[in-house]
Amino acid sequence: MGTETDFKVTDSEWEVMRVVWAHGQVSSKEIINVLEQKMGWKPGTTKTFIGRLVTKGMLDTQTEGRRYLYSAKVSENKFVRHSLGDFFSHVCNKEVGKTIAEVLSEATLSHQDIALLQEVLEAKKKVAVDVVPCNCVPGQCHCNVHHH
Amino acid sequence: MGTETDFKVTDSEWEVMRVVWAHGQVSSKEIINVLEQKMGWKPGTTKTFIGRLVTKGMLDTQTEGRRYLYSAKVSENKFVRHSLGDFFSHVCNKEVGKTIAEVLSEATLSHQDIALLQEVLEAKKKVAVDVVPCNCVPGQCHCNVHHH
DNA sequence: GATTAAAGTTTACGTTTGTAAACGATTCGT
DNA sequence: ACGAATCGTTTACAAACGTAAACTTTAATC
């Protein structure tokens, strides 16, 4: 064991990660600047989060001179997808389609996005089911509450 | 001020909320039972979360005899959408379409879901933009990192 | 070469969360 | 009517988080 990436970051740490992902490689100075701007954080605050992310195994350090350049151990895309998966673990499988439909109708989409989405849906048709099975524990979703 | 619903619950509290949403009105006994099953929580643990949710203004109490029946102040749908909105605040607007496409390709969808999604997309076409504007702070996404 | 500036590490401390037992009031069974 | 079972409330306590100053080491400046 040791440096296993645990894929669980807080909202504040996520802010730091975004700066790192945006840059690929970045100094603490740059991270501190960006987040002082956006979040109003004191340098010390950002330093704490950077340190915790290194400990959590989310950030790698490359020695540049005697300072560090930070980089992400996990890609932003991978991370976002993982987190979204986590999110949907709170929602009944039956509801996922509807939920996404709602998000989509609120989102700003480009023609290209729409084309991509339609493509995905077209492909999905081939593996679509008649009824999505509920994956919830009894008593935790409408599909299987036992009323009395 | 006083009972403003703050719409922010922890993962554990979310488990409680799901039981309440599933039942509409429910006793603590029932909540405790379901979560003892699913989470292996001791009754005291569940009681704590129920109490905190009442304090947070997420749960209402109806007096039934001298016990309570709990009900949610916010609908599950509303809550999920709100939380998803929160989630996407961590992602550049430009990426939202692609991200949703990825989730969709992993999800189990029914024919009905797909039809609904296609309908939504069809409607979206009319308001689609050529290029989704980036909504990120400089230095926090690829759209506007200033390399040097 | 001594002073200062910068960067990483330690320490600090209040709040929130996870986990639960203890307590107090009440109701129900006998 | 008395003891037992319930249910809500209080108290407890460690770990995680948000926020940040202090300290240490190293590098750069004069």
From TrEMBL, chains A, B:
It holds the Pfam family Penicillinase_R. It comes from the Bacteria. Keywords: DNA-binding, Transcription, Transcription regulation. Belongs to the BlaI transcriptional regulatory family. The keyword Secreted does not apply. The keyword Cell inner membrane does not apply. It comes from Bhargavaea changchunensis. InterPro entries: BlaI_family, Cu_transp_CopY/TcrY, WH-like_DNA-bd_sf, WH_DNA-bd_sf. This is CopY/TcrY family copper transport repressor.
